[in-house]
Fold this protein.
Amino acid sequence: MAGEKRYLFDNPRNVRRILWALYAACILTLSLELVVHRHTEHPWEWLPGFYPAYGFIGCVVLVLVAKWMRKIIIRPEDYYQQRDLPPWPDNGAARRGEDSQ
Amino acid sequence: MITLPPFALFFAAALAVALTRGLPRNLVLLATPALGALNLWLLPADAAWSLQLLGMDLEPLRIDRMSTLFGYLFHIAALIGIVYALHVRDTLQQVSALLYAGSALGAVFAGDLLSFFLFWEAMAVTSVFLVWARRSPAAYSAGVRYLVIQVISGLLLLVGLMLHWRATGSLAFEYIGTEGGYGWLILVALGLKAAFPLLHSWLVDAYPEATPTGTVFLSAFTTKVAIYALARGFPGTEWLVYVGATMACFPIFFAVVENDLRRVLAYSLVNQLGFMVVGIGIGSQLAINGAVAHAFTDVIFKGLLFMSMGAVLHMTGRINGSELGGLYKTMPRTAVLCIVGAASISAFPLFSGFVSKSMIMSAALKEHYNGIWLVLLFASAGVFHHAGIKIPYFAFFAHDSGIRVSDPPLNMQLAMLIAATLCIGIGVFPGVLYSALPFDVAYTPYDVTHVLTQLQLLLFSALAFVWLNKQGLYPPELNAVHLDVDWSYRRLLPRLAQPVFRGVARADRGLRQLGRGAVAGTVFLARQLHGPGGVLSRQAGTGTMVTWVVLLLAIYLLLSFS
């Protein structure tokens, strides 16, 4: 697509900027934990970096388990359209043009 | 001014829509939710309409705080859906959408179980046309499966309410509980429509097959009426806490690998319902408030997400993540509005999901459901992962699919804008929603700890997405079917039933052959006896008979003289 208008994220620098903003925000919220006193209710909440670790590990586990699960449940796109069931005893005869008598 | 029961206005409007065309029809469509909301405003706070039928006390209209809140919510949902579908020229869809919205309103304002049941069934019958209106073979068969399951739910409810009537002598729709067997029947009936685990497959099967505009209506009403009914009939049923936690968790695994982006949203709908069911199961005032508030915000942000994906489907004709990407270039407004919906469902501070979901989380901690809280926190991170990032990323960014379509028609954009404004409005000013909740409970979502921890959770979930993508660990979008519970009745059951049917067919064939053999034998014998040359069809002359008579007489004489 030569000559086509270049859009915002066609420039890899802009993508990098977004990522750097994400990394900066992560570091910022992590370091704020040192400054802000968090009131906690759950027995694990006091652990430093509990929420960041839980979010990160949770999502990695989620994706890895989902990938493993996919191996079991994946089927071809037309799985439910396929008539892999043998035809109904009588209908099959009718479809083949045979006389059902 | 005369006030009407809320459903009556929508039913009348459906008739008017069926009889009009063009501009008048559009005016009727737009006026209906507006007049409906005005009507609801004018209804006295304690309005009730009761009648006696065959010795049963019925109350087709009952107004209280919870039904009023759901009433307004459904008017908002109907308005958004109608604006979104204003370009559609399809009488079937427009009439059934109004009847469906009216039935949902009738259900939440029903004060007795029998009226509730009638509207519950009406919702099933009217909504299926929004699936069939896609007019594709896949939509047709998904619609049939949808209808069968919805009707099963209705039957369970009917049997449950009859047993309830016999046991208690009352049909009033109050706390039901699971003390009697009827309670379980009603709970399962409601659970079918609330998409309890293993009963959820109709939702992820049918919603993505509906029309782009139909799914917006579908996502708003059926499941939320079920949540409303659970909140009224089964608050504090502890079993629901565990059911809800399961619902919040398992769909996110499916959503990660699913390719059809509207099916991803359907899974995340089940996930959000899980949060509400947990709230109802906990049953404290804060938890019920949280469940109802989350139902309110969910209708709007889930509607917004379904609308943005509907816009993508409407403009490109595609909805699979593997075929989309790079749409932000020419659909920038849809992309931004989709991101607002994504931020809301992920419960980013200042967006609507944050102010409602956090009530449920806080209630879980207050009632010492520590394990459940951890599960819900995982589900919160997961929902950001699959609905918050995956949906906008694969549709609008990711690899460039080369598709260059413009933003959708103005009415679709306007509907998304209304929903997005509400998402941010509720997120910034939660007080308005809180004041309308069933119980007066003071709750402040915005404190430093809460905002900080939520941001940490979400930002590091996003970081995990980036890291997984960079490592190449993220599962690619594949054109494939992923099996779910519906496999059991679409494949397993037919497969198991087949030997039975074959046996029946064989026995039937054997019996018929036996019968046919008997008939054939009789016919053969008759032909032998009566056919040409048969013994019984031979002709004999009178002479022969006289000879025989003479012979017999001779024998007789001979015998008598001897």
About this structure: Chain A has one domain: 8-95.
